[in-house]
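I hope you will forgive my troubling you with a question about protein structure. I am sending you one protein, given as its amino acid sequence and as whole-number tokens for its backbone shapes. Thank you for your consideration; the sequence and its tokens are set out here:
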Amino acid sequence: MTAHIVWDWNGTLFDDIDISVAAASAACRTVGGGDITHEAYRRAFTRPVRSFYASLLERPFTDHQWKAIAECYHRTYRNLLDRARLREGVADVLDSLAGAGVTHSLLSMGEHDEVVALLEREGLLSRFLVAEGMARQQRTESKQAVLARHLDAVRERHPDELSIDRVLLIGDTLDDNEAAVAVGASCVLLADGSYDPEKAAAVAVPVAASLSAAAELGLRAISSRPGPG
């Protein structure tokens, strides 16, 4: 059976941390907060995203303020989108792994149409069996729920039997790891991801410095896992 990698998009294949921090700073300012640093963003990031902003602002806020935060973030992010780029070597990594028999899918918590448009712009869409973002009404869900559905969609298009012990998720946040653990998949996080390193160490999630290193580390772990039964 072949191995399968589920790639996260924002912060993983797509290096958008700078514009994400800028958009989050703008969103905080719109309700009386101040600018945030990259370190504060990374250490505070969590889902649901409303809890993330409560942590950044160090106070609760009203539903009306939450609407203003969300609208400001997305407006600012879209305005800055041309400043973000793919991580170096994305296409080469995907093609090299595919040449070794690894299949790929992509699961993002970003809006589906926007994610697909970016994949098409970058010439990457055809490399994934399934590429999914979220419908707007789904974006409050945990990644655990959407990953389980995503894998069902992947199995429908996978050329071989896809067993969960052959699935690796590569991402950049602790909720990526939580989602993988919940469904029984392996996970590797990028070392510069949006999480507190001490929390990552506490749950013993593997980390790697690059996309290729993350894939190598995760696939090595998969190969050493006993098969089902």
About this structure: The chain is about 50% helix and 15% strand. Residues 63-80 form the longest helix (18 residues). Residues 173 and 194 are 5 Å apart (CA to CA).
